[in-house]
Amino acid sequence: MASAEPKIILVFSGKRKSGKDYVTDFILKRLGSEICCILRLSGPLKKQYAQDHGLDYSELLAAGGYKETHRADMIAWGEQQRRQDPGFFCRLATEAAQQPVWIVSDARRRSDLRWFQTEYPRQTRCARVQASEETRADRGWRFTAGIDDAESECGLDGEKFDWIITNEADAPALEEQLENILQLASHAAGPHNS
Ligand SMILES: Nc1ncnc2c1ncn2[C@@H]1O[C@H](COP(=O)(O)OP(=O)(O)OP(=O)(O)O)[C@@H](O)[C@H]1O
Ligand SMILES: C[C@@](O)(CCOP(=O)(O)O)CC(=O)O
After folding, report:
1. How buried is residue 60: exposed, middle or buried, by Cβ count under 10 Å (0-12/13-18/19+)?
2. What is the ipTM metric for this complex?
3. How far, in Å, are 4, 11, 18, 85 from residue 26 at the CA level?
4. Which atom of ligand 2 is nearest to the CA of 151?
């Protein structure tokens, strides 16, 4: 089934272990799966990469060490696909989405943002999740040269965002920081949410 036209698209980005999945799952729980879906650009990438390399797709999706072992090679493989077609993973990730609110949990490159801004200029909004290096390290992050200093992690460093969410213990509660986003999304979803 082709995707339905979304009412709003919230495109999230952030460094490794900033909490992109945590924050976007939080929003999904608040809005509910009737009106909202999470789209991962890395979903179709990991699926194809797992098939081609005899790997466990569900482990690549999880937050553990398995995906970190394969990250550098997945990045290189994905970049090769993107060179031929920058919108490749964006199209695959969105092709079956039916809900009025799309949350993209893992934009990493300008080409990702531009694809959504070009295809859906009215609906697209961008949010950044940030956390200190100390907090990210507590969540398992270790600086890795070739990954943390490369496009996959730094490609959106100079971008302007509609919202910046600070996801750590001494920041305001997520509920509070996400209030505007939740209101906007509920409102955009319209009667679905009543
Ligand atoms: N606010 C929070 N409170 C408690 N645990 C959190 C919070 N934010 C993130 N975590 C935990 O930190 C870990 C990393 O978070 P998450 O997977 O959401 O990060 P990510 O940005 O998606 O990381 P990556 O890009 O490396 O996959 C997870 O185990 C998650 O449950
Ligand atoms: C290969 C890659 O998609 C892995 C992303 O994994 P995750 O969002 O950290 O779960 C990163 C990239 O596309 O550069």
Report:
1. buried
2. 0.97
3. 23, 15, 14, 32
4. 14
Residue located nearest, by CA, to atom 12 of ligand 1 = 139
Contact (CB, 8 A) for 157 and 128? no
Please state, in angstroms and rounded to a whole number, the distance separating the CA atoms of residues 167 and 18.
7
Q: Are 20 and 174 in contact (CB under 8 A)?
A: no
* Rounded distance between C-alpha atoms, residue 165 and residue 131, angstroms: 9
Print burial letters for 117-128: b (CB count within 10 Å at least 16), e (below 16). Answer: beebeebbbbbb
Q: How many residues does the chain have?
A: 194
Q: Take atom 9 of ligand 1 and give the residue whose Cα is closest.
A: 19
Please tell me the distance from the alpha carbon of residue 26 to that of residue 178, in angstroms, as a whole number: 9
Ligand 1 center to 194 CA (angstroms)? 31
Q: Are 90 and 115 in contact (CB under 8 A)?
A: yes
32 near 92, Cβ under 8 Å?
A: no
Compute mean pLDDT per 10 residues along the chain, 194 residues long, and list them: 89 98 98 97 96 97 92 96 96 96 98 97 98 97 97 97 97 98 96 57
Nearest residue (by CA) to ligand 2, atom 9, is 16
For tokens 């490749």, the residue is: 88
Centre of ligand 2 from the C-alpha of residue 19, in Å: 13
Expressed in angstroms and rounded, the spacing between residue 63 Cα and the centre of ligand 1 is 8
